[in-house]
Design goal:
Layout lengths: L4 H4 L4 H10 L1 E5 L3 H12 L4 E5 L17 H6 L3 H12 L4 E5 L8 H6 L3 E4 L4 H14 L2 E8 L2 E7 L23 H4 L3 H20 L10 E8 L3 E8 L9 E5 L11 E4 L5 E4 L4 H9 L6 E4 L3 E6 L2 E6 L3 E4 L7 H12 L9
Parallel strand pairs: 1-2, 1-4, 2-3, 4-5
Antiparallel strand pairs: 5-6, 6-7, 7-8, 9-10, 10-11, 11-15, 12-13, 13-14, 14-15
Length: about 350
């Protein structure tokens, strides 16, 4: 019997497993939540996994960081290296790699652009702010997670855009307003629940199908605690957000039937829109271009890139135009119509 038979047997299981096998995941942080995520991803046969963590293993990590052993703590081994060794012993089809360094402004963009999705299992606002900014610059989406005391949270910013992480959490929170494992402690169950919520959000995104009208700009946040269980809340975009607030929204055509949704994100200058096309049709149309540029169909998005920037088309129908291609709304619209056709753009109601 095939190793992944049971997950292939669910409704849409064969299609999901095929996409899962192609998925390239960047995991930033391999502690209490990260070790659970890493093991789950490898056991389920995700295509590739890169673990990034510059920390070393300590004895106080061992009660919740499930990939590590007592001897790892005694030796103070780098978490990334020890995680890779443990994950490779699981076997299966996943290609596992590790980088025993912290994510920094110097390495973030290159790491993001070689992956389909980023999973955040870090423990500080600065790292998450860097992840959020890099996601919007590169078009590579991410899923946030956190666990502290008896509480956990997960939120998907996949695809990137609005609302963004800083519509929810201030860029410079009041000192002491956000606890840490050192100040508040953390239970193993909180880490397990946070990792489970991330996998839930990622799987839901993989199963999503394109819509035909722009959706309401919200994000679903999963949060919970041991006593009360889990709940979902909606994060609404902050119009004044310095990362993703409006610069301009276009509906310039006089003919009502030709009005389309184009929105420029103020912090990074990318243009956001919605498409009527499914993945296969997007791939077909981009493949017919005389100059297709650098083209990649991943498990979560289709990406076309050239010197002027990139077009990234996501499963849920959203698309981002980045770089110089996004310098002007009219130029971005013209590019989209040349590459994908005028019928690809969602009309405003």
């Amino acid at each position: 019997m095939a190793r992944y038979d049971r997950q292939q047997r669910i409704p849409q299981g064969e299609e999901l497993d095929r996409d899962w096998q192609q998925l390239r995941v960047l995991l930033v942080g391999c502690g209490g939540v990260g070790t659970v995520l890493a093991q789950s991803l490898v056991r389920s046969g995700v295509g590739s996994l890169m673990v990034v963590d510059g920390d070393r293993i300590r004895e106080s990590d061992l009660h919740r960081q499930l990939l590590y052993l007592d001897e790892d703590a005694k030796q103070g081994r780098p978490k990334a290296d020890a995680a890779r060794a443990a994950l490779c012993k699981i076997g299966g089809r996943t290609l596992v790699d590790a980088l025993p360094q912290m994510l920094t402004p110097n390495n973030a963009e290159a790491l993001f652009c070689s992956h389909d999705v980023v999973l955040d299992a870090t423990d500080n606002i600065q790292a998450r702010s860097l992840i959020d900014l890099t996601a919007m610059r590169t078009g590579v989406g991410w899923i946030h997670s956190g666990a502290i005391a008896d509480r956990w949270v997960a939120a998907s910013f996949l695809p990137p855009g609005t609302p963004c992480y800083h519509c929810w959490v201030a860029e410079d929170p009041v000192p002491g307003s956000i606890g840490t494992c050192e100040t508040d402690g953390v239970l193993q169950i909180s880490c397990l629940a946070a990792a489970s919520a991330v996998i839930r959000l990622l799987t839901a995104q993989m199963l999503s199908t394109p819509g035909h009208t722009p959706r309401q700009m919200t994000r679903t946040i999963i949060r919970g605690n041991v006593e009360q269980g889990e709940s979902c809340v909606e994060l609404v975009a902050d119009p004044g957000c310095t990362r993703c607030g409006d610069v301009a929204t276009q509906s310039t055509a006089l003919d009502q039937d030709q009005r389309v949704y184009l929105r420029k994100l103020c912090g990074i200058g990318s243009v956001e829109t919605w498409l009527n096309l499914d993945f296969d049709e997007i791939e077909t149309r981009l493949g017919q271009l005389q100059d297709p540029g650098q083209f990649h169909r991943g498990a979560t998005a289709i990406r076309r890139e050239d010197r002027g920037g990139a077009l990234i088309c996501y499963r849920d129908g959203r698309a981002l135009v980045t770089g110089d291609h996004a310098s002007d709304l009219e130029e971005a619209r013209g590019l989209l119509e040349r590459w994908l056709g005028a019928d690809s753009l969602c009309r405003l109601p």
